[in-house]
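User: Fold this; C-alpha cells only.

Assistant: Input:
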Amino acid sequence: MKPDNPLLKILACPLDKGPLILDEAGDALYNPRLRRRYPIIDGIPRLLPSSGEPAAGREHDARPAAQPGSGSP
C-alpha cells in the first residue's frame, strides 16, 4: 500500500475506531494509541481484532504520534 492511497483516510482500527498510520515498510497499519499493528497481505489490510499484533516498545517510540495533516496532535 502506498502512503498516498486515499483508502488510508477512511480505514480505522477495529478496536478503538481511531485512525491508522501506514508503517515505514508499507506492510502494516499501525495504531499508536493501542500500540498495535495490522498486517497488509497482498495489498489487503487485515483489520480484524484478532489480526492485530502488539508493537515492540522501540517500534512504538520510532513512530510519529499522528499522520501529518490528520488534525491529531
